Amino acid sequence: MKNRIPVVLLACGSFNPITNMHLRLFEVARDHLHQTALPELKLLCGADVLKTFHTPNLWKDSHIQEIVEKFGLVCVNRSGHDPKRYILDSPILQQFQHNIHLAREPVLNEISATYVRKALSQGQSVKYLLPEAVITYIRDQGLYINDSSGKGKGKTG
């Protein structure tokens, strides 16, 4: 791409454990912004995080407004989510929808940290789902072993 412009993306989420899809969010968002906008600082999130803006007592309306009004967001769609509906169902998001960029991942990837934690707790392989360094760290620290909760809070047993 010609004329690349600097992009600063700030992401939130559990990233527990970080998956290749988490890392891919940054690539998709960067490519989207290079093609469509003059980026500054944006909050990067998956559509699942955008949905949490509707969760009572999780976000303050004033914080949501500050994020979307002053900075904006780049939201990468995830299977099973409807970010356009989340925007239309929120007066704040709807008011500042011009500052919300919806980026589509051209290669669908349904990897989720929840799935990875479950697979690990059941002794299944997660090779190629996570960066090798993350797999090594999880193994070395004994994380997610016998973790029936799926929350991955650390060693159990």
List segments where confidence is low: pLDDT < 50 over at least 5 consecutive residues: 152-157
Helix and strand run: EHEHHEHHEHH
* CATH homologous superfamily caption of the largest domain: HUPs
User: What is the total tally of β strands?
Assistant: 4
Structural class of the helices, strands and pairings?
Answer: alpha/beta
Termini distance?
51 Å
CATH architecture of the largest domain: 3-Layer(aba) Sandwich
Large-scale geometry: globular
What count of domains describes the coordinates?
Answer: 2
* Spatial order of the strands forming the largest sheet: 1-2-3-4
As a whole number of angstroms, the C-alpha radius of gyration is: 17 Å
> Sheet bearing the most strands, described?
4 strands, parallel
| Averaged pLDDT | 83
